[in-house]
């Protein structure tokens, strides 16, 4: 059995022990697939955009290595090869790479390349011919652009028809970025299912490596409670890549895109400051159902330490609009379980509210966007929760929603749409005084 290791942490000088993960098992190579038939079987999924970098993942159907060719023109000219500790990346379900060094302000062209690998023994390694995907143009969202357009989906739970329609609607809307706000999965039973569910939305039936909903725009992933369930959940960072850790260390020490990083992150897109937090599971760690395998309480506390510092970043402090995203709501309706007790499950995250609400309020956060309840709603500000809370629906076609957020210097407009593109709710925000 091959093994990979990844560390999930936060961008502080030293990684907080509460965010350290254990090694993840990698499935044995598939048998019976000819070398020439091993290829990419999903569109590339672009993630974690900065002004000068992005990450990308794609699914493969057999043991392969791969890389990304990129440049500021269609002639490309640069290569990003993922590796860890001197070993080139290899997988039989998902490959990932991080592209860095893009000139600030530039569009970027890229393609993924897949090459089959077969080990007979340590000195007899057979390789297939490299198979290059199509060249795609990617526009990275920037902090200094005049406006921002975000699309948000949640609680898709591997409902194929819902996801297909959402992908069509998102491609028609053409936002700057897509936020997948948790519960992508029901549970994760195999590495192949992990990769398929994460990486195939929007693919073309006639050519599964084409299309996609995040191949020409970036995806930003916020985990939900179901995204941590199942034996293969520990391989999720090999498809949903964590955000990079702090700068300053030699990249060549370990250029793997998924061996370190965090799922709490900030991003400035035009006038909007985005804060994403990982609410984790919907019950206490001590509950017997977890079999001693949950450690979310110290993980949320570590995110508080990160959040206090992240909110002091100038690009977040100066943003005309400030929005937080997390899968489980931070405020509940009357009778909702807070998820902190010995029975039931969270209708809202009491743990998250207790830790994160005060610093978010102090920083002037205007809205929290969540999912989890499978019914859309908008909560108005109150004395106890002095900001809007927007909850998306799903996963069935009659409950699923697409949230669109559009902002410029004058206003921020939110619409909640059903799968038929009918507006079912919405709100407007004015810029903050910063």
UniProtKB/TrEMBL annotation:
Q: Where is the Calcineurin-like phosphoesterase domain?
A: 150-375
Signal peptide coordinates: 1-27
Q: Which Gene3D superfamilies match?
A: 3.60.21.10
Instruction: Please tell me whether the keyword RNA-binding is annotated for this protein.
Output: no
**GO molecular function terms noted in the UniProt entry:** acid phosphatase activity
SUPFAM superfamilies listed in its UniProt record: Metallo-dependent phosphatases
- Which keywords appear in this protein's UniProt record, sorted alphabetically? Signal
- TM annotation in the entry: none
Q: What is the name listed in the Swiss-Prot or TrEMBL entry for this protein?
A: Calcineurin-like phosphoesterase domain-containing protein
Q: Which organism is it from?
A: Oceaniferula spumae
């Amino acid at each position: 059995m091959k093994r990979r290791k990844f560390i999930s942490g936060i961008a502080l000088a030293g990684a907080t022990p509460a965010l350290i993960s254990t090694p993840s098992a990698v499935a044995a190579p598939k048998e019976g697939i000819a070398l020439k038939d091993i290829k990419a079987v999903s569109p590339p999924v672009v993630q974690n955009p900065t002004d000068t970098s992005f990450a990308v993942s794609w699914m493969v159907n057999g043991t392969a290595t791969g890389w990304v060719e990129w440049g500021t023109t269609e002639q490309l000219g640069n290569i990003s090869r993922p590796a860890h500790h001197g070993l080139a990346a290899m997988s039989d379900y998902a490959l990932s790479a991080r592209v860095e060094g893009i000139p600030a302000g530039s569009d970027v062209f890229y393609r993924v390349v897949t090459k089959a690998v077969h080990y007979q023994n340590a000195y007899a390694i057979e390789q297939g011919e490299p198979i290059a995907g199509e060249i795609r143009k990617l526009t990275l969202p920037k902090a200094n652009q005049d406006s921002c357009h975000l699309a948000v989906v949640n609680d898709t739970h591997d409902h194929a028809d819902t996801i297909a329609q959402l992908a069509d609607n998102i491609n028609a809307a053409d936002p700057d970025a897509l936020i997948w706000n948790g519960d992508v999965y029901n549970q994760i039973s195999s590495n192949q299912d992990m990769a398929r569910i994460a990486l195939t939305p929007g693919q073309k039936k006639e050519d599964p490596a084409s299309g996609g909903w995040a191949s020409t725009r970036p995806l930003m992933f916020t985990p939900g409670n179901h995204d941590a369930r199942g034996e293969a959940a520990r391989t999720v960072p090999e498809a949903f890549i964590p955000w990079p850790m702090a700068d300053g260390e030699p990249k060549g020490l370990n250029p793997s895109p998924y061996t370190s990083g965090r799922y709490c992150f900030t991003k400035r897109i035009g006038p909007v400051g985005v804060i994403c937090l990982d609410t984790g599971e919907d019950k206490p760690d001590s509950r017997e159902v977890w079999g001693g395998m949950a450690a979310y309480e110290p993980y949320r506390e570590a995110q508080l330490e990160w959040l206090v510092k992240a909110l002091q970043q100038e690009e977040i402090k100066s943003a005309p609009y400030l929005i937080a995203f997390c899968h489980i709501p931070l405020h509940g309706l009357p009778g909702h379980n807070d998820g902190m007790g010995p029975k039931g499950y969270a209708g809202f995250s009491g743990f998250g509210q207790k830790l994160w609400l005060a610093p978010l309020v102090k920083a002037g956060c205007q809205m929290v966007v969540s999912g989890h309840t499978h019914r859309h709603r908008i909560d108005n500000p109150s004395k106890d929760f002095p900001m809007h809370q927007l909850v998306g629906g799903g996963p069935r076609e009659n409950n699923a929603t697409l949230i669109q957020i559009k902002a410029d210097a004058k206003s921020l407009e939110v619409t909640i749409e059903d799968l038929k593109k009918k507006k079912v709710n919405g709100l407007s925000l004015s810029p903050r005084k910063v």
